[in-house]
Structure to design on (223 residues):
């Protein structure tokens, strides 16, 4: 059974904190993605990676960075959290040109 | 500029009837389309996909139709069940792009 696991379901952080969101997949997928979902805006791509140590900016990379040191792990970093980064964060993985599998999501609240 | 559009933010359907969710796209390079379902506080789950070489794909109660000339696809759910109440996203990709391009989602409410 395919699995994408995000390290936290719910997080509350203070403005200015550095925040790490971790994602692990067990399917040996090349591609991994970080999205945020906000009401009425659908899924917006923050960053994606198509190989270890490779990363590409998505539609809204500002205020975020990522790390992919191992194939199965893709980390999203908020360098200095702000209240407008309060959102649902979704990690996904896929083979090239196939459906993506999502983790359960992390609801981040920045206060 | 939204390349994938779901123009209905929400849709309400009686249990047992057909639900039809619509999606339009603008990029003629898209050749693979997917539908996902999302419950609150969970990640989206893959439902069904269609390649541009087909105009219909069926999986149980779910059928996706693709009209390439109109750049339009639709998801039909029949019969609709209470567990189908969720947000449905359509997504598209092209051969030149690793990314999926997502619509904004349609919230489907199945009334008992």
């Amino acid at each position: 059974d395919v699995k994408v696991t995000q390290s936290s379901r719910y997080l509350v952080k203070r403005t200015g904190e550095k925040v790490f969101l971790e994602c692990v997949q067990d399917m040996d997928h090349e591609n991994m993605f970080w999205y945020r979902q906000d009401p009425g805006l659908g899924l917006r791509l923050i960053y994606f990676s198509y190989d270890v140590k490779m990363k590409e900016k998505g539609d809204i990379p500002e205020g975020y960075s990522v790390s992919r040191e191992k194939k199965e792990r893709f980390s999203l970093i908020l360098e200095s959290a702000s209240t407008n980064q309060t959102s649902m964060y979704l990690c996904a993985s896929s083979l090239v040109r196939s459906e993506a599998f999502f983790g359960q999501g992390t609801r981040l609240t920045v206060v | 500029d939204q390349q994938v559009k779901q123009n209905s933010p929400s849709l309400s359907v009686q249990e047992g009837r057909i639900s039809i969710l619509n999606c339009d796209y603008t990029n003629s390079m898209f050749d693979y389309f997917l539908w996902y379902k999302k419950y609150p506080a969970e990640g989206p789950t893959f439902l069904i996909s269609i390649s541009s070489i087909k105009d219909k794909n069926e999986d149980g109660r779910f059928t996706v139709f693709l009209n390439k000339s109109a750049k339009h696809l639709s998801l039909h759910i029949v019969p609709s069940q209470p567990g189908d109440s969720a947000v449905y996203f359509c997504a598209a990709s092209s051969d030149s792009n690793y990314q999926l391009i997502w619509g904004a989602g349609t919230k489907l409410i199945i009334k008992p």
Remarks:
- The interface with chain B takes residues 4, 9, 31, 33, 40-45, 48, 50, 56, 58, 88, 90-92, 96-97, 99-105, 107 of chain A (CB under 8 Å).
- The mean pLDDT of chain A is 93.
- The CA atoms of residues 25 and 72 of chain A lie 5 Å apart.
